[in-house]
What we know:
The protein is an alpha+beta fold. The protein has 2 domains: 1-39, no CATH class; 43-112, no CATH class. It has 2 helices and 6 strands. The chain has helices spanning 16-37, 42-45, and strands spanning 49-54, 62-66, 76-81, 87-92, 96-101, 107-112. The strands form 2 sheets. A 3-stranded antiparallel β-sheet has the order 1-6-3, with no helix packed on it. Strands 2-5-4 form a 3-stranded antiparallel β-sheet, with no helix packed on it. The mean pLDDT is 88.
Amino acid sequence: xxxxxxxxxxxxxxxxxxxxxxxxxxxxxxxxxxxxxxxxxxxxxxxxxxxxxxxxxxxxxxxxxxxxxxxxxxxxxxxxxxxxxxxxxxxxxxxxxxxxxxxxxxxxxxxxx
Length: 113
């Protein structure tokens, strides 16, 4: 659904105040429409870090990700992986998120939130 122009009513504004108000609201809704009609990324709506990474070549060894969230993350979601593997959190801090895999060199897309 596309957002269209703002129109307060079918009647033209009666005075300068109403004209200015309609003009201002049209500008605001046009700007919002450009943002929403262009689509929003997952990161635009949530405080998260999304990346694609290859886990360590040795199963059970850690892979450290620098997330940049400026806080300790709550958890992660593995969105996609190229092998049947278990990905699990090893450690987390305000700057890094450490994961492990039970399979070597798994390419994963992960969202840290």
